[in-house]
Write a structure and sequence with these properties.
alpha+beta; single chain
């Protein structure tokens, strides 16, 4: 009986550990290649994207020609702030989430970046 209880406890613990692991991608897709800093502006400026996240659903992200980025989610969350390019990264200083930078990767027309919040790699497709 004692052995059965230990086996049950070990099984429950391992199941809990499995559920605690990341359930979202933290690595860029193998086919995605880094976008050079000199090309980032061409890929983002004046465009509106649908961002797909495993942890936060989908949201709209716009990079306007005046240098501002806007985020709107279906749940009503909104944020905005100036965006810029620093070396090989795009950066945004959003009012609520602060100043963050990320590399931009591309596979065809789909872009990818890693969220500073949790390390999740999200995809961006033009609307």
């Amino acid at each position: 009986m004692k052995n059965a209880a230990m086996v049950l406890a070990a099984t429950v613990f391992s199941m809990g550990s499995a559920f605690a692991q990341n359930t979202f991608p933290t690595e860029y897709p193998a086919e995605a290649k880094p976008v050079a800093g000199s090309e980032i502006s061409n890929r983002l400026t004046g465009k509106v994207f649908t961002v797909k996240s495993a942890t936060s659903g989908d949201w709209r992200m716009e990079f306007d020609k005046r240098g501002y980025a806007f985020v709107d989610t279906d749940s009503g969350y909104r944020d905005n702030g100036p965006w810029r390019i620093e070396g090989e990264k795009w950066c945004a200083n959003m009012g609520k989430t602060g100043d963050n930078c990320a590399e931009l990767y591309a596979a065809g027309e789909t872009l990818y970046y890693k969220r500073a919040k949790n390390g999740e790699v999200v995809s961006m497709t033009m609307r």
